[in-house]
Amino acid sequence: AGSGAGADMRTEISTAAAFVTRLLRAAGGVGEEQLRCFRECLQEAMREHYRHHWFPLVPSKGSGYRCIRINHKMDPLIGKAAGMIGLSHERLFQLLPSELTLWVDPFEVSYRIGEDGSICVLYEGPQPGGKAAKQLESRTSCKEEWRIGRSSPSKSYNMMTVSS
User: Fold this and answer.
1) In the chain, what are the domain boundaries?
2) What pLDDT digit, counting tens, does each position of 60-73 carry?
3) Alpha-carbon Rg of the chain, whole angstroms?
4) Of 157, 114, 162, whose CA–CA distance to 28 is shortest?
5) CA 160 to CA 54: how far, in whole Å?
6) 3-class state of residue 103 by DSSP
7) Does domain 9-124 correspond to CATH entry 3.40.50.20?
8) Which among 7, 25, 74, 85 counts the fewest CB atoms within 10 Å?
């Protein structure tokens, strides 16, 4: 590990932070400058949080600790980054899916929207063990599902006009 550990996480963390930022951008109402700041704050929070919980030789170790989750409670890392740009938890719940699980593991970043949604891979790196490319077929259907999911908003999305 040593000083190299942080560098190894860079792709996974930036992929995960970019994904959450994209969800916010898609919901609308958050400025580009705020989004950029949010993404940087989230990456910083994740780097800090994962620093001693990143095991490239055993990628699944610590997976639960690195899992980012929104499930009627806001994930503290997302909440912290949002707080830096003045977004309240209430506002985040309006902008983001009410059920989101994001797994940030060495060599793989994947997510699931909804409790029963399929797991979609955002990033898959070359694993030292070499068992890559088995989940790639499902990628296109995931993208479609994400789009379909956005076009039929859940009940909580109808409250957006309240604060404006």
Assistant:
1) 9-124
2) 999 999 999 999 89
3) 16
4) 157
5) 38
6) strand
7) no
8) 7
